[in-house]
Amino acid sequence: MSTQASSALVTIRDLGVTLGGKQILQHLTTQIPRGKVTALIGLNGSGKTTLLRAILGEVPYTGRVTFHCGHDHRPGHPERIGYVPQRLLFDTNLPLTVVELVALGMASRPLFLGVGKNMRQRITQLLSRVHAEHLLDSPVAGLSGGELQRVLLALALEPLPELLLLDEPAAGIDFRHQGEFYALITRLNQEHGITVLLVSHDLSVVSNSAHYVLCLRNGQILCEGPPREILSGERIAEIFGEDKAVYAHEAHHL
Ligand SMILES: Nc1ncnc2c1ncn2[C@@H]1O[C@H](COP(=O)(O)OP(=O)(O)O)[C@@H](O)[C@H]1O
Ligand SMILES: [Mg+2]
After folding, report:
1. Is the keyword ATP-binding in the record (predicted)?
2. Which of 22, 44, 200, 201 to mutate to test ligand 1, by most ligand atoms within 8 A of the CB atom?
3. Substitution site in 15, 17, 18, 19 for ligand 1 pocket (most atoms within 8 Å of beta carbon)
4. Roughly what angle, to the nearest 10 degrees, separates helices 145-156 and 98-106?
5. What domains sit in the chain, N to C, each tagged with a CATH number?
6. 3-state class of 64 per DSSP?
7. In 82, 113, 138, 211, which residue has its Cα 20 to 30 A from 225's Cα atom?
Protein backbone atom coordinates (compact mmCIF):
# COMPACT_ATOMS: atom_id res chain seq x y z
CA MET A 1 0.00 0.00 0.00
CA SER A 2 1.51 3.29 -1.01
CA THR A 3 0.03 5.27 1.89
CA GLN A 4 1.62 2.92 4.37
CA ALA A 5 5.16 4.17 4.13
CA SER A 6 4.24 7.59 5.50
CA SER A 7 2.01 6.23 8.26
CA ALA A 8 4.14 3.53 9.80
CA LEU A 9 4.42 3.56 13.59
CA VAL A 10 7.31 1.11 13.50
CA THR A 11 9.68 0.30 10.67
CA ILE A 12 11.71 -2.87 10.85
CA ARG A 13 14.71 -3.17 8.58
CA ASP A 14 16.76 -6.31 7.92
CA LEU A 15 15.99 -7.68 11.37
CA GLY A 16 17.92 -10.75 12.47
CA VAL A 17 17.65 -12.63 15.76
CA THR A 18 19.84 -15.56 16.80
CA LEU A 19 19.09 -17.34 20.07
CA GLY A 20 20.95 -20.33 21.48
CA GLY A 21 23.05 -20.47 18.30
CA LYS A 22 19.93 -20.74 16.14
CA GLN A 23 18.94 -18.09 13.61
CA ILE A 24 15.28 -17.43 14.36
CA LEU A 25 14.54 -14.27 12.37
CA GLN A 26 16.44 -13.24 9.26
CA HIS A 27 16.36 -10.36 6.79
CA LEU A 28 12.97 -9.33 8.11
CA THR A 29 11.85 -5.99 6.71
CA THR A 30 8.35 -4.63 7.26
CA GLN A 31 6.29 -1.84 8.80
CA ILE A 32 3.58 -1.72 11.43
CA PRO A 33 0.93 0.73 10.19
CA ARG A 34 0.00 3.47 12.65
CA GLY A 35 -3.45 3.39 14.23
CA LYS A 36 -4.34 0.04 12.65
CA VAL A 37 -4.81 -3.51 13.87
CA THR A 38 -2.16 -5.74 12.29
CA ALA A 39 -2.39 -9.52 12.61
CA LEU A 40 0.76 -11.61 12.71
CA ILE A 41 0.16 -15.14 11.48
CA GLY A 42 2.28 -18.19 10.70
CA LEU A 43 2.91 -21.74 11.86
CA ASN A 44 4.10 -22.51 15.37
CA GLY A 45 7.84 -21.94 15.50
CA SER A 46 7.83 -19.42 12.63
CA GLY A 47 9.14 -16.66 14.93
CA LYS A 48 6.04 -14.64 15.86
CA THR A 49 6.78 -14.37 19.59
CA THR A 50 10.45 -13.63 18.85
CA LEU A 51 9.43 -10.77 16.55
CA LEU A 52 7.30 -9.23 19.33
CA ARG A 53 10.19 -9.61 21.77
CA ALA A 54 12.60 -7.94 19.34
CA ILE A 55 10.16 -5.01 19.00
CA LEU A 56 10.10 -4.82 22.81
CA GLY A 57 13.90 -4.89 22.88
CA GLU A 58 13.84 -8.05 25.02
CA VAL A 59 16.14 -10.04 22.71
CA PRO A 60 19.37 -8.91 21.02
CA TYR A 61 18.98 -8.31 17.29
CA THR A 62 20.77 -7.07 14.21
CA GLY A 63 19.15 -4.63 11.80
CA ARG A 64 16.91 -1.77 12.89
CA VAL A 65 13.63 -1.30 14.68
CA THR A 66 12.61 2.34 14.44
CA PHE A 67 9.65 3.90 16.23
CA HIS A 68 7.93 6.95 14.78
CA CYS A 69 6.01 7.97 17.88
CA GLY A 70 5.22 11.53 18.78
CA HIS A 71 7.43 11.65 21.87
CA ASP A 72 10.99 11.83 23.07
CA HIS A 73 13.17 9.03 21.71
CA ARG A 74 16.39 9.67 23.55
CA PRO A 75 17.79 6.95 25.80
CA GLY A 76 15.91 6.83 29.08
CA HIS A 77 12.58 7.52 27.37
CA PRO A 78 11.21 4.07 26.67
CA GLU A 79 8.66 3.58 23.92
CA ARG A 80 5.13 3.28 25.25
CA ILE A 81 4.41 -0.35 24.45
CA GLY A 82 1.78 -2.51 26.14
CA TYR A 83 2.41 -6.25 26.04
CA VAL A 84 0.28 -9.26 26.91
CA PRO A 85 2.61 -12.26 26.57
CA GLN A 86 1.68 -15.67 25.23
CA ARG A 87 2.57 -17.41 28.45
CA LEU A 88 2.19 -16.04 31.91
CA LEU A 89 5.32 -15.61 33.92
CA PHE A 90 3.53 -15.92 37.23
CA ASP A 91 1.58 -18.61 38.97
CA THR A 92 -2.12 -17.81 38.66
CA ASN A 93 -2.77 -19.74 41.86
CA LEU A 94 -1.15 -16.97 43.88
CA PRO A 95 -3.43 -16.01 46.76
CA LEU A 96 -4.06 -12.51 45.39
CA THR A 97 -7.15 -10.60 44.45
CA VAL A 98 -7.40 -8.71 41.17
CA VAL A 99 -6.94 -5.34 42.85
CA GLU A 100 -3.77 -6.63 44.56
CA LEU A 101 -2.38 -8.08 41.34
CA VAL A 102 -2.94 -4.84 39.43
CA ALA A 103 -1.46 -2.80 42.29
CA LEU A 104 1.62 -5.04 42.21
CA GLY A 105 1.91 -4.59 38.47
CA MET A 106 1.54 -0.82 38.63
CA ALA A 107 3.70 0.08 41.57
CA SER A 108 6.77 -1.75 42.75
CA ARG A 109 5.54 -1.29 46.26
CA PRO A 110 5.23 -4.02 48.86
CA LEU A 111 1.71 -5.32 49.15
CA PHE A 112 1.78 -5.51 52.94
CA LEU A 113 1.31 -1.75 52.85
CA GLY A 114 -2.15 -2.50 51.51
CA VAL A 115 -4.01 -0.97 48.58
CA GLY A 116 -5.05 2.54 49.54
CA LYS A 117 -8.34 4.21 48.66
CA ASN A 118 -6.90 6.33 45.85
CA MET A 119 -5.13 3.35 44.33
CA ARG A 120 -8.35 1.33 44.51
CA GLN A 121 -10.17 4.07 42.66
CA ARG A 122 -7.50 4.25 40.00
CA ILE A 123 -7.52 0.49 39.54
CA THR A 124 -11.33 0.47 39.30
CA GLN A 125 -11.02 2.99 36.49
CA LEU A 126 -8.37 0.91 34.74
CA LEU A 127 -10.47 -2.23 35.00
CA SER A 128 -13.49 -0.40 33.61
CA ARG A 129 -11.56 0.12 30.35
CA VAL A 130 -11.82 -3.63 29.85
CA HIS A 131 -15.24 -4.05 31.50
CA ALA A 132 -13.71 -5.84 34.48
CA GLU A 133 -14.36 -3.44 37.36
CA HIS A 134 -16.67 -5.97 38.99
CA LEU A 135 -13.67 -8.30 39.40
CA LEU A 136 -11.82 -5.92 41.73
CA ASP A 137 -11.99 -8.12 44.83
CA SER A 138 -12.13 -11.49 43.08
CA PRO A 139 -9.33 -13.97 43.77
CA VAL A 140 -7.04 -14.25 40.71
CA ALA A 141 -7.07 -18.05 41.04
CA GLY A 142 -10.83 -18.10 40.42
CA LEU A 143 -10.82 -16.06 37.21
CA SER A 144 -11.82 -17.64 33.91
CA GLY A 145 -9.31 -17.49 31.05
CA GLY A 146 -11.17 -14.55 29.51
CA GLU A 147 -11.38 -12.62 32.78
CA LEU A 148 -7.66 -13.07 33.43
CA GLN A 149 -6.82 -11.90 29.89
CA ARG A 150 -8.92 -8.77 30.43
CA VAL A 151 -7.12 -8.01 33.70
CA LEU A 152 -3.72 -8.47 32.00
CA LEU A 153 -4.92 -6.27 29.17
CA ALA A 154 -5.90 -3.57 31.71
CA LEU A 155 -2.33 -3.68 33.02
CA ALA A 156 -0.91 -3.40 29.50
CA LEU A 157 -3.07 -0.28 29.02
CA GLU A 158 -1.50 1.65 31.89
CA PRO A 159 -0.05 3.98 30.87
CA LEU A 160 -2.06 4.05 27.62
CA PRO A 161 0.39 2.67 25.07
CA GLU A 162 0.97 3.79 21.50
CA LEU A 163 1.62 0.21 20.49
CA LEU A 164 -0.16 -2.80 21.99
CA LEU A 165 1.40 -6.23 21.41
CA LEU A 166 -0.87 -9.22 22.02
CA ASP A 167 0.52 -12.73 21.69
CA GLU A 168 -2.31 -15.20 21.05
CA PRO A 169 -4.51 -13.29 23.48
CA ALA A 170 -7.59 -15.45 23.05
CA ALA A 171 -5.85 -18.79 23.52
CA GLY A 172 -7.16 -19.23 27.07
CA ILE A 173 -10.64 -17.88 26.38
CA ASP A 174 -13.61 -20.09 25.67
CA PHE A 175 -15.01 -19.72 22.20
CA ARG A 176 -18.16 -17.89 23.30
CA HIS A 177 -16.19 -15.06 24.90
CA GLN A 178 -13.53 -14.66 22.22
CA GLY A 179 -15.77 -12.41 20.13
CA GLU A 180 -16.22 -10.07 23.12
CA PHE A 181 -12.47 -9.90 23.64
CA TYR A 182 -11.77 -8.96 20.04
CA ALA A 183 -14.61 -6.42 20.09
CA LEU A 184 -12.80 -4.84 23.04
CA ILE A 185 -9.53 -4.70 21.09
CA THR A 186 -11.33 -3.10 18.15
CA ARG A 187 -12.88 -0.49 20.47
CA LEU A 188 -9.49 0.34 22.04
CA ASN A 189 -8.05 0.75 18.57
CA GLN A 190 -10.89 3.00 17.43
CA GLU A 191 -11.40 5.09 20.56
CA HIS A 192 -7.79 5.62 21.57
CA GLY A 193 -6.07 5.18 18.21
CA ILE A 194 -3.82 2.52 19.72
CA THR A 195 -1.79 0.62 17.12
CA VAL A 196 -2.25 -3.11 17.71
CA LEU A 197 -0.04 -5.99 16.62
CA LEU A 198 -1.71 -9.24 17.49
CA VAL A 199 -0.68 -12.86 16.99
CA SER A 200 -3.64 -15.04 16.16
CA HIS A 201 -4.29 -18.44 14.64
CA ASP A 202 -7.94 -17.71 14.21
CA LEU A 203 -8.35 -16.66 10.62
CA SER A 204 -11.93 -15.51 11.10
CA VAL A 205 -10.67 -13.08 13.74
CA VAL A 206 -7.92 -11.94 11.40
CA SER A 207 -10.44 -11.39 8.65
CA ASN A 208 -12.90 -9.52 10.92
CA SER A 209 -10.60 -7.49 13.15
CA ALA A 210 -7.35 -6.83 11.29
CA HIS A 211 -6.67 -4.09 8.76
CA TYR A 212 -3.34 -5.57 7.74
CA VAL A 213 -1.77 -9.02 7.89
CA LEU A 214 1.88 -10.09 8.21
CA CYS A 215 2.68 -13.75 7.55
CA LEU A 216 5.86 -15.27 8.83
CA ARG A 217 7.52 -18.43 7.64
CA ASN A 218 10.86 -19.67 8.93
CA GLY A 219 11.66 -16.31 10.45
CA GLN A 220 10.99 -14.30 7.31
CA ILE A 221 8.04 -12.36 5.93
CA LEU A 222 6.31 -14.67 3.49
CA CYS A 223 3.61 -12.18 2.53
CA GLU A 224 1.81 -9.10 3.82
CA GLY A 225 -1.24 -7.10 2.83
CA PRO A 226 -4.93 -6.53 3.58
CA PRO A 227 -6.78 -9.60 4.93
CA ARG A 228 -8.90 -10.17 1.82
CA GLU A 229 -5.72 -10.50 -0.22
CA ILE A 230 -3.74 -12.61 2.22
CA LEU A 231 -6.51 -14.94 3.31
CA SER A 232 -7.36 -16.20 -0.15
CA GLY A 233 -7.31 -19.96 -0.60
CA GLU A 234 -3.93 -20.33 -2.28
CA ARG A 235 -2.21 -17.96 0.07
CA ILE A 236 -3.45 -19.84 3.10
CA ALA A 237 -2.15 -23.08 1.65
CA GLU A 238 1.20 -21.39 1.16
CA ILE A 239 1.29 -20.02 4.71
CA PHE A 240 0.08 -23.06 6.56
CA GLY A 241 1.09 -25.82 4.14
CA GLU A 242 0.00 -29.24 5.33
CA ASP A 243 -1.37 -27.81 8.55
CA LYS A 244 -4.03 -25.94 6.59
CA ALA A 245 -6.77 -28.25 7.84
CA VAL A 246 -5.99 -27.26 11.43
CA TYR A 247 -6.84 -23.66 10.71
CA ALA A 248 -9.45 -24.11 7.99
CA HIS A 249 -12.32 -24.84 10.39
CA GLU A 250 -11.74 -21.47 12.00
CA ALA A 251 -11.92 -19.74 8.64
CA HIS A 252 -15.18 -21.30 7.50
CA HIS A 253 -16.92 -18.00 6.89
CA LEU A 254 -14.12 -16.28 5.02
N1 LIG B 1 15.58 -18.53 23.69
C2 LIG B 1 15.57 -19.37 22.64
N3 LIG B 1 16.63 -20.16 22.38
C4 LIG B 1 16.65 -21.00 21.31
N5 LIG B 1 15.62 -21.14 20.47
C6 LIG B 1 14.53 -20.39 20.68
C7 LIG B 1 14.45 -19.46 21.76
N8 LIG B 1 13.23 -18.83 21.71
C9 LIG B 1 12.60 -19.35 20.64
N10 LIG B 1 13.36 -20.28 20.03
C11 LIG B 1 13.02 -21.04 18.80
O12 LIG B 1 12.72 -20.11 17.78
C13 LIG B 1 11.69 -20.59 16.95
C14 LIG B 1 10.60 -19.53 16.89
O15 LIG B 1 9.98 -19.42 18.15
P16 LIG B 1 8.79 -18.43 18.45
O17 LIG B 1 9.22 -17.06 18.14
O18 LIG B 1 8.31 -18.71 19.84
O19 LIG B 1 7.72 -18.90 17.37
P20 LIG B 1 6.13 -18.73 17.33
O21 LIG B 1 5.74 -17.70 18.33
O22 LIG B 1 5.83 -18.35 15.91
O23 LIG B 1 5.55 -20.09 17.65
C24 LIG B 1 11.24 -21.91 17.54
O25 LIG B 1 11.85 -22.93 16.81
C26 LIG B 1 11.75 -21.85 18.96
O27 LIG B 1 12.02 -23.13 19.44
MG1 LIG C 1 4.53 -17.75 19.95
Report:
1. yes
2. 22
3. 19
4. 30
5. 1-69+162-174+193-254 (3.40.50.300)
6. strand
7. 82
